[in-house]
């Protein structure tokens, strides 16, 4: 079963582009919520992301991974593939 990956982004955010690039390079399909200027959507994201309001915010199987640096840290530690392969998240 493929992991459910969700990412909150701004269209021109370089960190968002970089995080999406990593996921795409791994062949991972993801749901993108582009929240440019939408404070209601940003508030919803922050509620899910432990009050973090920066973008991107990434979720794998409803587990809050964090932002761009966090997903790259998981990748460099060899833990991202495990998380993506897990049927129920962390």
Automatic annotation (TrEMBL):
Keywords: Cytoplasm, Disulfide bond, Electron transport, Redox-active center, Transport. GO terms for biological process: cell redox homeostasis; cellular response to oxidative stress. Residues 5-65 form the Glutaredoxin domain. It comes from the Bacteria. SUPFAM superfamilies: Thioredoxin-like (SSF52833). Gene3D superfamilies: Glutaredoxin. The keyword Electron transport applies. This is Glutaredoxin.
